[in-house]
Amino acid sequence: MPFLSDTLSRVKPSPTIAVTNKARELKDAGKDVIGLGAGEPDFDTPENIKAAAIAAINEGKTKYTAVDGIPELKKAICAKFKRDNGLDYTPDQVTVGTGGKQVLYNALMATLNPGDEVLIPAPYWVSYPDMVLLAGGEPTFVEGQLQTKFKITAEQLDAAITPKTKWFIFNSPSNPTGAGYSRAELKALTDVLKKHPHVWIMTDDMYEHLAYDDFEFCTPAQVEPELYDRTLTVNGVSKAYAMTGWRIGYAAGPKDLIKAMGKIQSQSTSNPSSISQWAAVEALNGSQDFIAPNNEIFKRRRDMVCEMLNAVDGITCPVPEGAFYVYPSIAGLIGKTSAKGVKITDDEVFATALLEDTGVAVVFGAAFGLSPNFRISYATSDEALKEACTRIQDFCASLS
Hints:
Elements: H1 15-28, E1 34-35, H2 47-58, H3 71-85, E2 94-97, H4 100-111, E3 117-122, H5 127-134, E4 138-143, H6 154-160, E5 165-171, H7 183-194, E6 200-204, H8 220-223, E7 231-236, E8 249-252, H9 255-266, H10 274-285, H11 291-310, E9 325-326, H12 347-358, E10 360-361, E11 363-364, E12 374-377, H13 382-397
Parallel strand pairs: 1-10, 3-4, 3-5, 5-6, 6-7
Antiparallel strand pairs: 2-8, 7-8, 9-12, 11-12
Helix pairs in contact: 2-10, 3-10, 4-5, 4-9, 6-7, 11-13
Catalytic activity: L-aspartate + 2-oxoglutarate = oxaloacetate + L-glutamate
Cofactor: pyridoxal 5'-phosphate
EC number: 2.6.1.-
């Protein structure tokens, strides 16, 4: 009898974490490495949020809390949804988890049965399909195209839905592409979903506040109120508030679903860190003044990276509406050979050769379900990004 679960054979380790770890190992070994794999702001957590956490420690708020979040945080989340999205929720419609990933996983574990399908637009965040598999479901995909900046159309969505589809996972602005759906584009998708009442919507809004130029964020239940009763709206404090390590995600949705998710959490992690929860209260209720200046920095970096990559013969890099990623196509480089004799047959070979030859660590597109591409996170310094893009330019110029 094998010791390890058969379920493990259905999933793979996170490629983004693997790239980040590889870059860290090379750097620790003394190599000149620029890591562009991690989806993590390089800004520090704002001072008011850190002060709230310190105050919570000093006030002895260090005990177990309610499994799915303290009342004060649930109240702050309800206020946030009303203020930012025009959505009305009560505290018993809210759950708080140890990061957005746990919230998504809890929802899938609480709802999926063998044979249930979860429809995921590609390219996708690397964890979506594997979480579905761990929960016993079957991920299915609909591919965005370079011509539409990797956004799917209503016609594609309608054609991909089957009687077995239980969830549609929606992420805008997107990881890995940064693509954001306009209200009109999202309304076209929600019109399709209205026709299929058996399909629930799981919307990952983690990059809501990271939006640039004239792009205006909106979320499905906001655009189409008829979908409110079958939508789980997921968000968190990791990205906009530079709180990745604090591990707080949250969601709002129908009471029965929220209760079921709490049941899963009660038998796995129990409550998120009490200190992190109090910090998140301040994040949501406190000043939001730092978001706009941070976004200006991200926008400047985005523009520099896109300009430098689009100057490369063989690379096409759409300019994204939000988040802090770009997802360039290397279709024009496939078939070429590096100075060290490596033939670029796909994006994984490209990323490996790039790292070995130049010390620039990126994530290959196949990890996100759409090739031939690679992902760059521009949530790092201007200097590092400029040097990395220069190395990418030189590497691509050396291909023959």
